[in-house]
Amino acid sequence: MIDAGRPGKLHVCVVEDFPDAQSLVKDVLSYAGVEVTIAANGAILDSLLGQGLKPDMFLLDLALPGETGIEIMRRLRGDASWNRCPIVALTAFGFGRDRRQALSMGFDGYITKPIDLGTFSSTVLSFFPQYATGLTGARAHAARRARGR
Fold first, then answer.
1. Residue 24: Cβ within 10 Å count
2. pTM for the full model?
3. Under CATH, domain 11-146 is a member of which superfamily?
4. Residue-level pLDDT at 143
């Protein structure tokens, strides 16, 4: 859970087209004190960004209809304003080669679906040292694995 003594509320933008996955991710992160914005595709994300959305992190489904998560990540990486923003793949593709490929393409991390309810919020928070305190055992391992370490 986010400690009120830490700076600001963490804001994560999730680009995911499946409504059940949207709800689950939002509920788990919201319970951990994270503000969550959902975009079902790249066009909706563009609209939200155009309206001033400034998340601290993006979680991108790779297999989106139309523009893929990989294409969205490349677009975001091409905009200097997102250079310091973690962009993490959130995907059902769970093979080791998929993880390595995503990390080599520029993703900062890789989280497989279905998400692990016991480690998901800790894994997301681990990208922000000011929020990730007390990660031990399975949670610490999951966080390191998502970051490709």
1. 17
2. 0.84
3. Response regulator (3.40.50.2300)
4. 52
